[in-house]
Design a protein that fits this description.
The complex is a heterodimer of chains A (210) and B (400). By secondary structure, chain A is an all-beta fold. Chain A has no helices and 20 strands. In chain A, a hairpin with a 4-residue loop joins strand 9 and strand 10. Chain A is globular and about 40 Å long. Chain B is an alpha+beta fold. Helix content of chain B is 57%, strand content 11%. In chain B, strand 3 and strand 4 form a beta hairpin. In chain B, helix 9 runs antiparallel to helix 10, helix 10 runs antiparallel to helix 11 and helix 13 crosses helix 14. The longest helix of chain B is centred in the C-terminal third of the chain and has 18 residues. Classes of the chains: A mainly beta (210), B alpha+beta (400). Chains A and B meet through strand 11, strand 14, strand 15 and strand 18 of A and helix 1, helix 2, helix 3, helix 4 and helix 5 of B.
Chain lengths: 210, 400
Protein backbone atom coordinates (compact mmCIF):
# COMPACT_ATOMS: atom_id res chain seq x y z
CA UNK A 1 0.00 0.00 0.00
CA UNK A 2 1.34 3.36 -1.00
CA UNK A 3 1.20 6.48 1.03
CA UNK A 4 -0.74 9.20 -0.70
CA UNK A 5 1.29 12.01 -2.08
CA UNK A 6 0.19 15.25 -0.61
CA UNK A 7 0.47 17.44 -3.67
CA UNK A 8 -0.56 20.60 -2.00
CA UNK A 9 -1.20 21.71 1.47
CA UNK A 10 -3.05 24.71 2.68
CA UNK A 11 -2.61 26.02 6.15
CA UNK A 12 -2.42 25.93 8.98
CA UNK A 13 -3.99 29.36 9.05
CA UNK A 14 -3.56 31.84 11.79
CA UNK A 15 -6.43 31.70 14.19
CA UNK A 16 -7.73 28.40 12.86
CA UNK A 17 -7.50 25.51 15.34
CA UNK A 18 -8.49 22.59 13.19
CA UNK A 19 -10.26 21.48 10.03
CA UNK A 20 -13.42 19.50 10.38
CA UNK A 21 -16.26 19.35 7.83
CA UNK A 22 -15.29 19.88 4.21
CA UNK A 23 -17.57 20.70 1.31
CA UNK A 24 -17.14 22.30 -2.06
CA UNK A 25 -19.55 24.44 -4.02
CA UNK A 26 -17.50 24.05 -7.18
CA UNK A 27 -15.50 27.19 -6.68
CA UNK A 28 -14.52 27.32 -3.08
CA UNK A 29 -13.81 24.76 -0.47
CA UNK A 30 -15.88 25.39 2.62
CA UNK A 31 -14.59 23.89 5.74
CA UNK A 32 -15.44 24.08 9.36
CA UNK A 33 -12.45 25.27 11.32
CA UNK A 34 -13.56 24.90 14.90
CA UNK A 35 -14.26 28.50 15.73
CA UNK A 36 -15.35 29.50 12.25
CA UNK A 37 -16.32 28.36 8.77
CA UNK A 38 -13.81 29.25 6.10
CA UNK A 39 -13.82 29.38 2.37
CA UNK A 40 -10.64 28.42 0.65
CA UNK A 41 -9.84 29.30 -2.93
CA UNK A 42 -8.11 26.19 -4.25
CA UNK A 43 -6.27 28.09 -6.95
CA UNK A 44 -4.65 30.74 -4.85
CA UNK A 45 -4.62 28.88 -1.58
CA UNK A 46 -6.03 31.86 0.18
CA UNK A 47 -8.79 31.98 2.68
CA UNK A 48 -11.32 34.15 0.99
CA UNK A 49 -14.11 34.17 3.50
CA UNK A 50 -14.67 33.65 7.12
CA UNK A 51 -17.89 33.12 8.95
CA UNK A 52 -17.48 33.38 12.67
CA UNK A 53 -19.68 30.48 13.59
CA UNK A 54 -18.25 27.45 15.33
CA UNK A 55 -18.49 24.14 13.53
CA UNK A 56 -16.91 20.74 14.07
CA UNK A 57 -18.33 18.21 11.59
CA UNK A 58 -20.46 18.08 8.47
CA UNK A 59 -20.95 21.07 6.21
CA UNK A 60 -23.63 21.29 3.53
CA UNK A 61 -24.75 23.94 1.08
CA UNK A 62 -28.12 24.37 -0.64
CA UNK A 63 -26.97 27.11 -2.98
CA UNK A 64 -28.09 29.86 -0.61
CA UNK A 65 -27.40 28.81 2.94
CA UNK A 66 -24.64 26.87 4.57
CA UNK A 67 -25.57 24.24 7.10
CA UNK A 68 -23.11 23.21 9.72
CA UNK A 69 -23.14 20.56 12.39
CA UNK A 70 -21.85 21.78 15.71
CA UNK A 71 -21.96 19.58 18.79
CA UNK A 72 -25.56 18.35 18.81
CA UNK A 73 -26.99 21.10 16.63
CA UNK A 74 -27.50 21.94 12.98
CA UNK A 75 -26.79 25.56 12.21
CA UNK A 76 -28.15 27.36 9.18
CA UNK A 77 -25.84 30.16 8.11
CA UNK A 78 -26.15 33.00 5.64
CA UNK A 79 -22.72 33.10 4.02
CA UNK A 80 -23.22 36.66 2.82
CA UNK A 81 -23.66 38.10 6.26
CA UNK A 82 -21.88 35.39 8.20
CA UNK A 83 -24.74 35.05 10.65
CA UNK A 84 -26.49 32.00 12.02
CA UNK A 85 -30.03 32.21 10.69
CA UNK A 86 -31.42 29.35 12.77
CA UNK A 87 -30.43 26.36 14.85
CA UNK A 88 -32.14 23.02 15.31
CA UNK A 89 -31.26 19.92 17.26
CA UNK A 90 -29.37 17.24 15.33
CA UNK A 91 -31.37 13.98 15.42
CA UNK A 92 -28.28 11.93 16.10
CA UNK A 93 -27.00 14.15 18.87
CA UNK A 94 -23.26 14.55 18.66
CA UNK A 95 -22.78 11.48 16.47
CA UNK A 96 -23.41 13.25 13.16
CA UNK A 97 -20.63 12.99 10.63
CA UNK A 98 -21.23 13.80 6.94
CA UNK A 99 -24.12 15.97 5.80
CA UNK A 100 -25.54 16.83 2.36
CA UNK A 101 -28.46 18.88 1.08
CA UNK A 102 -30.90 17.57 -1.56
CA UNK A 103 -34.63 17.70 -2.31
CA UNK A 104 -35.29 20.24 0.42
CA UNK A 105 -33.81 18.03 3.09
CA UNK A 106 -30.57 17.63 4.94
CA UNK A 107 -29.20 14.12 4.92
CA UNK A 108 -27.01 13.42 7.91
CA UNK A 109 -24.82 10.37 8.30
CA UNK A 110 -24.47 8.97 11.77
CA UNK A 111 -20.89 8.05 12.53
CA UNK A 112 -20.65 4.31 13.13
CA UNK A 113 -24.42 3.89 12.94
CA UNK A 114 -24.74 3.15 9.24
CA UNK A 115 -27.83 5.29 9.48
CA UNK A 116 -28.77 8.41 7.59
CA UNK A 117 -31.25 10.90 9.02
CA UNK A 118 -33.43 12.99 6.77
CA UNK A 119 -34.22 16.40 8.24
CA UNK A 120 -36.40 19.15 6.77
CA UNK A 121 -33.91 21.92 5.98
CA UNK A 122 -36.45 24.65 6.78
CA UNK A 123 -37.99 23.38 10.00
CA UNK A 124 -35.41 20.93 11.27
CA UNK A 125 -38.10 18.29 11.64
CA UNK A 126 -36.81 14.73 11.49
CA UNK A 127 -38.54 13.20 8.49
CA UNK A 128 -36.99 9.73 8.45
CA UNK A 129 -34.13 7.62 9.69
CA UNK A 130 -32.83 5.22 7.08
CA UNK A 131 -30.55 2.27 7.41
CA UNK A 132 -28.52 1.20 4.45
CA UNK A 133 -27.90 -2.45 5.13
CA UNK A 134 -28.33 -3.61 1.59
CA UNK A 135 -27.10 -2.25 -1.71
CA UNK A 136 -29.88 -0.58 -3.68
CA UNK A 137 -28.94 0.15 -6.41
CA UNK A 138 -25.76 -0.98 -8.08
CA UNK A 139 -26.59 0.54 -11.46
CA UNK A 140 -23.61 2.76 -12.17
CA UNK A 141 -22.75 5.90 -14.08
CA UNK A 142 -19.04 5.49 -13.37
CA UNK A 143 -17.22 4.51 -16.51
CA UNK A 144 -13.72 3.18 -16.61
CA UNK A 145 -11.79 3.37 -13.41
CA UNK A 146 -13.62 3.28 -10.15
CA UNK A 147 -12.11 5.13 -7.24
CA UNK A 148 -13.28 3.97 -3.94
CA UNK A 149 -12.89 5.78 -0.67
CA UNK A 150 -13.12 3.63 2.37
CA UNK A 151 -13.36 5.18 5.79
CA UNK A 152 -12.75 2.95 8.76
CA UNK A 153 -12.75 4.64 12.12
CA UNK A 154 -10.43 7.58 11.66
CA UNK A 155 -8.29 5.99 8.99
CA UNK A 156 -8.96 6.76 5.37
CA UNK A 157 -7.93 4.64 2.49
CA UNK A 158 -8.50 5.43 -1.14
CA UNK A 159 -8.62 2.44 -3.42
CA UNK A 160 -8.47 2.34 -7.19
CA UNK A 161 -10.40 -0.58 -8.61
CA UNK A 162 -9.82 -1.94 -12.07
CA UNK A 163 -13.29 -1.74 -13.57
CA UNK A 164 -12.79 -4.85 -15.66
CA UNK A 165 -11.24 -7.25 -13.23
CA UNK A 166 -12.54 -5.89 -9.96
CA UNK A 167 -9.07 -6.05 -8.47
CA UNK A 168 -7.82 -3.39 -6.12
CA UNK A 169 -5.06 -1.79 -8.15
CA UNK A 170 -3.86 0.81 -5.74
CA UNK A 171 -4.41 1.66 -2.13
CA UNK A 172 -3.51 5.03 -0.76
CA UNK A 173 -3.39 5.70 2.90
CA UNK A 174 -4.48 9.22 3.66
CA UNK A 175 -3.48 10.98 6.81
CA UNK A 176 -0.61 10.68 9.17
CA UNK A 177 -0.33 8.82 12.45
CA UNK A 178 -1.94 10.88 15.17
CA UNK A 179 -3.81 13.12 12.76
CA UNK A 180 -7.48 12.66 12.08
CA UNK A 181 -8.91 12.91 8.60
CA UNK A 182 -12.09 14.76 9.06
CA UNK A 183 -13.68 15.24 5.68
CA UNK A 184 -13.17 14.55 2.02
CA UNK A 185 -14.25 16.49 -1.02
CA UNK A 186 -13.15 15.72 -4.57
CA UNK A 187 -11.03 18.16 -6.57
CA UNK A 188 -11.66 19.12 -10.19
CA UNK A 189 -8.81 16.91 -11.39
CA UNK A 190 -9.55 13.58 -9.77
CA UNK A 191 -7.80 14.10 -6.48
CA UNK A 192 -9.26 14.77 -3.07
CA UNK A 193 -9.31 17.60 -0.57
CA UNK A 194 -8.99 16.09 2.86
CA UNK A 195 -9.53 17.90 6.08
CA UNK A 196 -6.62 17.23 8.42
CA UNK A 197 -8.43 17.63 11.70
CA UNK A 198 -6.38 19.08 14.47
CA UNK A 199 -3.41 19.74 12.22
CA UNK A 200 -5.42 22.64 10.90
CA UNK A 201 -4.56 21.74 7.33
CA UNK A 202 -6.46 20.90 4.17
CA UNK A 203 -4.51 18.55 1.98
CA UNK A 204 -4.86 17.59 -1.64
CA UNK A 205 -4.17 13.91 -1.93
CA UNK A 206 -3.51 12.02 -5.12
CA UNK A 207 -1.62 9.02 -6.37
CA UNK A 208 1.75 7.93 -5.15
CA UNK A 209 3.55 8.59 -8.40
CA UNK A 210 2.61 12.29 -8.72
CA UNK B 1 -16.49 21.36 -17.59
CA UNK B 2 -16.92 21.61 -13.87
CA UNK B 3 -20.47 20.27 -14.03
CA UNK B 4 -19.48 17.12 -15.86
CA UNK B 5 -16.67 16.54 -13.43
CA UNK B 6 -19.08 16.82 -10.52
CA UNK B 7 -21.31 14.20 -12.14
CA UNK B 8 -18.35 11.90 -12.73
CA UNK B 9 -17.18 12.24 -9.19
CA UNK B 10 -20.70 11.66 -7.91
CA UNK B 11 -20.89 8.51 -10.03
CA UNK B 12 -17.66 7.27 -8.53
CA UNK B 13 -18.85 8.05 -5.02
CA UNK B 14 -21.98 6.00 -5.71
CA UNK B 15 -19.92 3.15 -7.12
CA UNK B 16 -18.05 3.18 -3.84
CA UNK B 17 -21.28 3.15 -1.87
CA UNK B 18 -20.95 6.69 -0.50
CA UNK B 19 -24.28 8.32 -1.34
CA UNK B 20 -23.80 11.39 0.89
CA UNK B 21 -20.66 12.39 -0.99
CA UNK B 22 -22.60 12.02 -4.25
CA UNK B 23 -25.48 14.13 -2.97
CA UNK B 24 -23.11 16.94 -2.11
CA UNK B 25 -22.03 17.04 -5.75
CA UNK B 26 -25.34 16.67 -7.55
CA UNK B 27 -27.84 17.67 -4.91
CA UNK B 28 -28.67 20.98 -6.48
CA UNK B 29 -28.84 20.36 -10.23
CA UNK B 30 -31.79 19.45 -12.42
CA UNK B 31 -30.19 18.11 -15.60
CA UNK B 32 -31.14 14.50 -16.39
CA UNK B 33 -27.81 12.99 -15.40
CA UNK B 34 -27.91 14.64 -11.98
CA UNK B 35 -31.52 13.61 -11.49
CA UNK B 36 -30.48 10.03 -12.14
CA UNK B 37 -27.44 10.23 -9.88
CA UNK B 38 -29.48 11.83 -7.14
CA UNK B 39 -32.06 9.08 -7.55
CA UNK B 40 -29.37 6.44 -7.18
CA UNK B 41 -27.93 8.22 -4.14
CA UNK B 42 -31.33 8.33 -2.46
CA UNK B 43 -31.88 4.67 -3.31
CA UNK B 44 -28.61 3.82 -1.62
CA UNK B 45 -29.59 5.94 1.37
CA UNK B 46 -32.90 4.08 1.52
CA UNK B 47 -35.51 6.68 0.61
CA UNK B 48 -37.05 4.47 -2.03
CA UNK B 49 -40.13 6.56 -2.85
CA UNK B 50 -38.07 9.66 -3.55
CA UNK B 51 -35.50 7.62 -5.46
CA UNK B 52 -38.18 6.11 -7.66
CA UNK B 53 -39.71 9.48 -8.57
CA UNK B 54 -36.30 10.93 -9.42
CA UNK B 55 -35.36 7.93 -11.56
CA UNK B 56 -38.69 8.10 -13.38
CA UNK B 57 -38.16 11.81 -14.04
CA UNK B 58 -34.63 11.14 -15.25
CA UNK B 59 -35.84 8.37 -17.57
CA UNK B 60 -38.37 10.74 -19.11
CA UNK B 61 -35.74 13.45 -19.50
CA UNK B 62 -33.37 11.04 -21.29
CA UNK B 63 -35.81 10.68 -24.16
CA UNK B 64 -33.05 10.88 -26.82
CA UNK B 65 -30.51 8.82 -24.94
CA UNK B 66 -31.64 5.21 -24.93
CA UNK B 67 -28.71 3.82 -22.97
CA UNK B 68 -28.98 6.39 -20.18
CA UNK B 69 -32.73 5.91 -20.16
CA UNK B 70 -32.29 2.16 -19.86
CA UNK B 71 -29.98 2.69 -16.88
CA UNK B 72 -32.73 4.69 -15.18
CA UNK B 73 -35.26 1.96 -15.92
CA UNK B 74 -32.95 -0.71 -14.53
CA UNK B 75 -32.30 1.31 -11.37
CA UNK B 76 -36.02 2.03 -10.96
CA UNK B 77 -36.75 -1.68 -11.31
CA UNK B 78 -34.30 -2.50 -8.56
CA UNK B 79 -35.80 0.20 -6.34
CA UNK B 80 -39.29 -1.20 -7.02
CA UNK B 81 -38.10 -4.65 -5.97
CA UNK B 82 -36.58 -3.28 -2.80
CA UNK B 83 -39.90 -1.57 -2.07
CA UNK B 84 -41.54 -4.94 -2.65
CA UNK B 85 -43.51 -3.66 -5.59
CA UNK B 86 -43.62 -7.01 -7.33
CA UNK B 87 -46.09 -5.72 -9.89
CA UNK B 88 -43.28 -3.84 -11.65
CA UNK B 89 -43.42 -4.97 -15.29
CA UNK B 90 -40.48 -7.27 -15.72
CA UNK B 91 -40.71 -7.07 -19.52
CA UNK B 92 -39.69 -3.42 -19.16
CA UNK B 93 -36.60 -4.53 -17.30
CA UNK B 94 -35.83 -7.17 -19.94
CA UNK B 95 -36.11 -4.54 -22.66
CA UNK B 96 -33.77 -2.24 -20.74
CA UNK B 97 -31.21 -5.05 -20.45
CA UNK B 98 -31.33 -5.45 -24.22
CA UNK B 99 -30.82 -1.72 -24.78
CA UNK B 100 -27.88 -1.63 -22.38
CA UNK B 101 -26.19 -4.60 -23.99
CA UNK B 102 -26.76 -3.29 -27.51
CA UNK B 103 -25.46 0.13 -26.45
CA UNK B 104 -22.22 -1.30 -25.14
CA UNK B 105 -22.99 -0.80 -21.45
CA UNK B 106 -22.17 -4.38 -20.59
CA UNK B 107 -21.59 -3.72 -16.90
CA UNK B 108 -25.09 -2.37 -16.33
CA UNK B 109 -26.62 -4.94 -18.66
CA UNK B 110 -25.07 -7.66 -16.52
CA UNK B 111 -26.14 -5.96 -13.30
CA UNK B 112 -29.71 -5.52 -14.50
CA UNK B 113 -29.76 -9.19 -15.45
CA UNK B 114 -28.95 -10.01 -11.84
CA UNK B 115 -31.82 -7.75 -10.75
CA UNK B 116 -34.17 -9.69 -13.01
CA UNK B 117 -33.00 -12.98 -11.56
CA UNK B 118 -33.50 -11.60 -8.07
CA UNK B 119 -37.07 -10.63 -8.99
CA UNK B 120 -37.62 -14.27 -9.87
CA UNK B 121 -36.28 -15.34 -6.50
CA UNK B 122 -38.67 -12.98 -4.71
CA UNK B 123 -41.52 -14.40 -6.77
CA UNK B 124 -40.53 -17.90 -5.70
CA UNK B 125 -39.34 -19.00 -9.14
CA UNK B 126 -36.27 -20.61 -7.68
CA UNK B 127 -35.50 -23.14 -10.36
CA UNK B 128 -35.77 -20.50 -13.09
CA UNK B 129 -33.41 -18.27 -11.14
CA UNK B 130 -30.98 -21.12 -10.57
CA UNK B 131 -30.88 -22.00 -14.24
CA UNK B 132 -30.30 -18.45 -15.44
CA UNK B 133 -27.66 -17.79 -12.84
CA UNK B 134 -25.69 -20.89 -13.72
CA UNK B 135 -25.27 -19.59 -17.28
CA UNK B 136 -23.68 -16.36 -16.05
CA UNK B 137 -19.91 -16.29 -15.80
CA UNK B 138 -17.75 -13.24 -15.67
CA UNK B 139 -14.16 -13.49 -16.77
CA UNK B 140 -13.47 -9.94 -15.73
CA UNK B 141 -15.99 -7.69 -14.04
CA UNK B 142 -16.16 -4.91 -11.49
CA UNK B 143 -15.98 -6.08 -7.91
CA UNK B 144 -19.56 -5.12 -7.05
CA UNK B 145 -20.96 -7.09 -9.94
CA UNK B 146 -19.03 -10.17 -8.88
CA UNK B 147 -20.11 -9.79 -5.27
CA UNK B 148 -23.77 -9.34 -6.17
CA UNK B 149 -23.71 -12.36 -8.45
CA UNK B 150 -22.32 -14.56 -5.68
CA UNK B 151 -24.74 -13.17 -3.10
CA UNK B 152 -27.62 -13.97 -5.43
CA UNK B 153 -26.25 -17.48 -5.95
CA UNK B 154 -26.18 -17.85 -2.17
CA UNK B 155 -29.81 -16.75 -1.84
CA UNK B 156 -30.87 -19.23 -4.50
CA UNK B 157 -28.88 -22.00 -2.82
CA UNK B 158 -30.51 -21.22 0.52
CA UNK B 159 -33.95 -21.51 -1.03
CA UNK B 160 -32.91 -24.84 -2.52
CA UNK B 161 -31.72 -25.98 0.91
CA UNK B 162 -28.12 -26.24 -0.31
CA UNK B 163 -26.32 -24.80 2.68
CA UNK B 164 -22.80 -25.73 1.61
CA UNK B 165 -23.21 -24.16 -1.80
CA UNK B 166 -24.62 -21.08 -0.07
CA UNK B 167 -21.66 -20.83 2.32
CA UNK B 168 -19.26 -21.15 -0.57
CA UNK B 169 -20.99 -18.44 -2.58
CA UNK B 170 -21.13 -16.11 0.42
CA UNK B 171 -17.42 -16.50 0.94
CA UNK B 172 -16.74 -15.51 -2.64
CA UNK B 173 -19.13 -12.60 -2.33
CA UNK B 174 -17.38 -11.38 0.81
CA UNK B 175 -13.99 -11.47 -0.91
CA UNK B 176 -15.23 -9.37 -3.79
CA UNK B 177 -17.38 -6.85 -1.94
CA UNK B 178 -15.97 -3.39 -1.25
CA UNK B 179 -19.17 -1.39 -0.83
CA UNK B 180 -20.16 -1.18 2.87
CA UNK B 181 -23.90 -1.83 2.44
CA UNK B 182 -23.13 -4.88 0.31
CA UNK B 183 -20.70 -6.14 2.91
CA UNK B 184 -23.40 -5.78 5.55
CA UNK B 185 -25.88 -7.68 3.40
CA UNK B 186 -23.40 -10.51 2.87
CA UNK B 187 -22.54 -10.68 6.56
CA UNK B 188 -26.24 -10.76 7.57
CA UNK B 189 -26.99 -13.54 5.09
CA UNK B 190 -24.00 -15.53 6.31
CA UNK B 191 -25.26 -15.38 9.89
CA UNK B 192 -28.56 -16.90 8.80
CA UNK B 193 -26.88 -20.14 7.79
CA UNK B 194 -26.32 -21.01 11.42
CA UNK B 195 -29.79 -20.06 12.60
CA UNK B 196 -32.55 -22.61 13.29
CA UNK B 197 -34.30 -23.45 10.06
CA UNK B 198 -36.70 -26.01 11.48
CA UNK B 199 -37.54 -28.23 14.42
CA UNK B 200 -36.85 -31.94 13.97
CA UNK B 201 -38.82 -34.63 15.78
CA UNK B 202 -36.96 -37.93 15.72
CA UNK B 203 -38.07 -40.94 17.77
CA UNK B 204 -39.77 -38.78 20.34
CA UNK B 205 -36.96 -36.19 20.70
CA UNK B 206 -37.31 -32.73 19.26
CA UNK B 207 -34.47 -30.30 18.57
CA UNK B 208 -33.79 -27.32 16.30
CA UNK B 209 -31.76 -27.90 13.17
CA UNK B 210 -29.87 -25.57 10.83
CA UNK B 211 -30.14 -25.44 7.07
CA UNK B 212 -26.99 -27.53 6.80
CA UNK B 213 -28.49 -30.26 8.94
CA UNK B 214 -31.68 -30.19 6.89
CA UNK B 215 -29.64 -30.51 3.71
CA UNK B 216 -27.87 -33.56 5.13
CA UNK B 217 -31.20 -34.98 6.25
CA UNK B 218 -32.77 -34.54 2.80
CA UNK B 219 -29.79 -36.27 1.20
CA UNK B 220 -29.95 -39.20 3.58
CA UNK B 221 -33.07 -41.01 2.31
CA UNK B 222 -34.62 -40.80 5.75
CA UNK B 223 -38.38 -40.67 5.35
CA UNK B 224 -39.56 -37.21 6.38
CA UNK B 225 -42.93 -35.61 6.93
CA UNK B 226 -42.17 -31.95 6.27
CA UNK B 227 -44.67 -29.55 7.83
CA UNK B 228 -42.73 -26.55 6.55
CA UNK B 229 -43.65 -27.25 2.94
CA UNK B 230 -46.46 -29.68 3.50
CA UNK B 231 -44.97 -32.79 1.92
CA UNK B 232 -43.74 -36.33 2.43
CA UNK B 233 -40.22 -37.16 1.34
CA UNK B 234 -39.70 -40.86 0.92
CA UNK B 235 -38.06 -43.34 -1.44
CA UNK B 236 -36.48 -40.55 -3.46
CA UNK B 237 -39.84 -38.89 -4.11
CA UNK B 238 -41.55 -35.79 -2.79
CA UNK B 239 -45.31 -36.04 -2.36
CA UNK B 240 -46.79 -32.55 -2.09
CA UNK B 241 -49.77 -31.84 0.13
CA UNK B 242 -50.30 -28.25 -0.99
CA UNK B 243 -54.07 -27.65 -0.89
CA UNK B 244 -54.59 -31.06 0.72
CA UNK B 245 -54.72 -29.60 4.21
CA UNK B 246 -56.90 -32.19 5.94
CA UNK B 247 -54.97 -35.16 4.58
CA UNK B 248 -51.71 -33.55 5.62
CA UNK B 249 -52.98 -32.93 9.13
CA UNK B 250 -53.90 -36.61 9.32
CA UNK B 251 -50.47 -37.63 8.04
CA UNK B 252 -48.76 -35.31 10.52
CA UNK B 253 -50.67 -36.72 13.49
CA UNK B 254 -49.78 -40.27 12.51
CA UNK B 255 -46.17 -39.31 11.80
CA UNK B 256 -45.72 -37.69 15.20
CA UNK B 257 -47.12 -40.67 17.03
CA UNK B 258 -44.84 -43.20 15.36
CA UNK B 259 -45.32 -46.96 15.67
CA UNK B 260 -47.68 -46.56 18.62
CA UNK B 261 -50.31 -45.12 16.31
CA UNK B 262 -53.19 -42.80 17.12
CA UNK B 263 -56.65 -43.66 18.47
CA UNK B 264 -59.66 -42.89 16.29
CA UNK B 265 -61.19 -40.51 18.82
CA UNK B 266 -57.95 -38.55 18.98
CA UNK B 267 -57.94 -38.26 15.20
CA UNK B 268 -61.55 -37.07 15.17
CA UNK B 269 -60.54 -34.30 17.52
CA UNK B 270 -57.24 -33.30 16.01
CA UNK B 271 -58.01 -33.71 12.32
CA UNK B 272 -61.76 -33.01 12.13
CA UNK B 273 -61.89 -30.82 15.24
CA UNK B 274 -64.84 -32.86 16.41
CA UNK B 275 -65.52 -34.19 19.90
CA UNK B 276 -68.25 -36.42 18.57
CA UNK B 277 -67.36 -40.06 17.91
CA UNK B 278 -70.15 -41.43 15.77
CA UNK B 279 -70.58 -43.34 12.54
CA UNK B 280 -70.33 -40.22 10.41
CA UNK B 281 -66.93 -39.44 11.82
CA UNK B 282 -65.79 -43.04 11.53
CA UNK B 283 -66.82 -43.13 7.88
CA UNK B 284 -65.14 -39.85 7.22
CA UNK B 285 -61.92 -41.10 8.75
CA UNK B 286 -62.05 -44.29 6.68
CA UNK B 287 -62.43 -42.27 3.50
CA UNK B 288 -59.59 -39.89 4.32
CA UNK B 289 -57.33 -42.69 5.46
CA UNK B 290 -57.94 -44.43 2.20
CA UNK B 291 -57.18 -41.31 0.19
CA UNK B 292 -54.04 -40.75 2.18
CA UNK B 293 -52.93 -44.32 1.68
CA UNK B 294 -53.18 -43.88 -2.08
CA UNK B 295 -51.13 -40.69 -1.99
CA UNK B 296 -48.28 -42.14 0.05
CA UNK B 297 -48.09 -45.53 -1.69
CA UNK B 298 -45.94 -47.42 -2.50
CA UNK B 299 -43.22 -46.38 -0.08
CA UNK B 300 -45.45 -45.80 2.91
CA UNK B 301 -48.75 -47.06 4.15
CA UNK B 302 -51.30 -46.76 6.94
CA UNK B 303 -52.23 -49.79 9.03
CA UNK B 304 -55.26 -50.21 11.17
CA UNK B 305 -54.49 -50.94 14.80
CA UNK B 306 -56.94 -52.06 17.43
CA UNK B 307 -57.74 -48.52 18.47
CA UNK B 308 -56.98 -46.53 15.38
CA UNK B 309 -54.25 -46.25 12.81
CA UNK B 310 -50.51 -46.04 12.46
CA UNK B 311 -48.10 -44.89 9.77
CA UNK B 312 -45.40 -47.15 8.38
CA UNK B 313 -42.47 -46.89 8.07
CA UNK B 314 -41.30 -44.75 10.94
CA UNK B 315 -40.57 -41.19 9.83
CA UNK B 316 -39.02 -38.03 11.21
CA UNK B 317 -41.01 -34.81 11.31
CA UNK B 318 -39.85 -31.34 10.38
CA UNK B 319 -41.79 -28.39 11.74
CA UNK B 320 -41.30 -24.65 11.26
CA UNK B 321 -38.73 -23.12 13.60
CA UNK B 322 -41.36 -20.96 15.27
CA UNK B 323 -44.89 -21.66 16.36
CA UNK B 324 -48.04 -20.26 14.96
CA UNK B 325 -50.03 -20.23 11.83
CA UNK B 326 -49.29 -18.32 8.71
CA UNK B 327 -45.62 -19.25 8.80
CA UNK B 328 -45.15 -18.54 5.11
CA UNK B 329 -46.48 -14.99 5.32
CA UNK B 330 -44.28 -14.38 8.37
CA UNK B 331 -41.33 -15.84 6.54
CA UNK B 332 -41.70 -13.33 3.73
CA UNK B 333 -42.10 -10.48 6.19
CA UNK B 334 -39.02 -11.70 8.07
CA UNK B 335 -36.82 -9.52 5.88
CA UNK B 336 -38.20 -6.49 7.70
CA UNK B 337 -39.32 -4.80 4.48
CA UNK B 338 -42.73 -3.35 3.73
CA UNK B 339 -44.84 -5.64 1.58
CA UNK B 340 -48.17 -5.01 -0.09
CA UNK B 341 -50.87 -7.71 -0.02
CA UNK B 342 -50.45 -8.07 -3.77
CA UNK B 343 -46.72 -8.68 -3.45
CA UNK B 344 -47.20 -11.26 -0.68
CA UNK B 345 -49.80 -13.02 -2.82
CA UNK B 346 -47.48 -13.07 -5.82
CA UNK B 347 -44.54 -14.35 -3.81
CA UNK B 348 -46.51 -17.16 -2.18
CA UNK B 349 -48.40 -18.28 -5.25
CA UNK B 350 -51.56 -18.53 -3.19
CA UNK B 351 -54.85 -16.65 -3.21
CA UNK B 352 -55.30 -13.08 -2.08
CA UNK B 353 -57.99 -14.17 0.39
CA UNK B 354 -55.62 -16.60 2.07
CA UNK B 355 -53.05 -13.85 2.48
CA UNK B 356 -55.64 -11.37 3.76
CA UNK B 357 -56.87 -13.84 6.38
CA UNK B 358 -53.31 -14.52 7.49
CA UNK B 359 -52.54 -10.80 7.76
CA UNK B 360 -55.72 -10.12 9.72
CA UNK B 361 -54.85 -12.87 12.21
CA UNK B 362 -51.24 -11.75 12.51
CA UNK B 363 -52.29 -8.15 12.99
CA UNK B 364 -54.76 -9.14 15.70
CA UNK B 365 -51.89 -10.93 17.46
CA UNK B 366 -49.74 -7.86 17.14
CA UNK B 367 -47.18 -9.72 15.05
CA UNK B 368 -47.39 -7.52 11.97
CA UNK B 369 -48.22 -3.84 11.55
CA UNK B 370 -50.14 -2.14 8.75
CA UNK B 371 -49.08 1.17 7.24
CA UNK B 372 -51.20 3.34 4.98
CA UNK B 373 -54.55 2.48 3.50
CA UNK B 374 -56.13 1.10 0.36
CA UNK B 375 -53.79 0.50 -2.53
CA UNK B 376 -50.87 1.99 -0.65
CA UNK B 377 -51.27 -0.21 2.37
CA UNK B 378 -48.12 -2.03 3.38
CA UNK B 379 -47.35 -4.70 5.93
CA UNK B 380 -44.27 -4.97 8.04
CA UNK B 381 -42.76 -6.65 11.03
CA UNK B 382 -39.38 -6.02 12.63
CA UNK B 383 -36.65 -7.97 10.85
CA UNK B 384 -36.37 -11.51 12.13
CA UNK B 385 -32.77 -12.51 12.53
CA UNK B 386 -33.19 -15.48 14.85
CA UNK B 387 -34.36 -18.03 12.31
CA UNK B 388 -33.65 -19.06 8.75
CA UNK B 389 -36.86 -18.95 6.75
CA UNK B 390 -35.86 -20.86 3.63
CA UNK B 391 -37.92 -23.94 4.44
CA UNK B 392 -41.05 -21.85 4.94
CA UNK B 393 -40.91 -20.22 1.52
CA UNK B 394 -42.32 -21.90 -1.54
CA UNK B 395 -40.49 -23.07 -4.62
CA UNK B 396 -42.94 -22.19 -7.34
CA UNK B 397 -42.85 -23.32 -10.93
CA UNK B 398 -42.50 -20.89 -13.82
CA UNK B 399 -46.24 -20.42 -14.21
CA UNK B 400 -48.55 -20.24 -11.24
Amino acid sequence: MADGTISREYGPFEGVDGVYGVDTDGERIWYAAGDSIRALDPETGELTERIDVQGDAGTAYDGTHLYQLYEDEIRRIDPKTGTIVSTVACPCGTRGSGMAWAEGSLWIGEYRGRKIHRVDAETGELLATLESNRLVTGVTWADGELWHGAVEEEDVELRRIDAKSGEVRERIHVGEPGVMVTGIAPTKDGRFFCGGGSSGKVRVVGRGED
Amino acid sequence: MSNNDDAKRAARALAAGDPLAALKLVGRREDPECLALRGIALAQIGDLALARSLLDRAADAFVDHPVERARCVAAAAEVALAARDLTFPLETLSAAIGTLAAGGDSVNAAYADLVLIRANVLLGRIDDAHERLSTIHYDIAPATLVAVRHLLAAEVAIRRIEANAAADALERAARAATVPSLQTEIADTTKLLDKPAARLLDAGDERTVTLREVETLFASNTPIVDACRPSLRIGGEIVSFLRRGTLFTLLLELARAGPAGVARETLFERVFESKIADDTQRARLRVDTSRLRKMIAPHATIEATGEGFRLLPEVVVLRPPIDGDHAAVLALLADGRRWSTAALTAALGTSRRTVQRALAALEADGRVAAYGRGRNQRWQRPPLTTIATALLLPNLGPIH
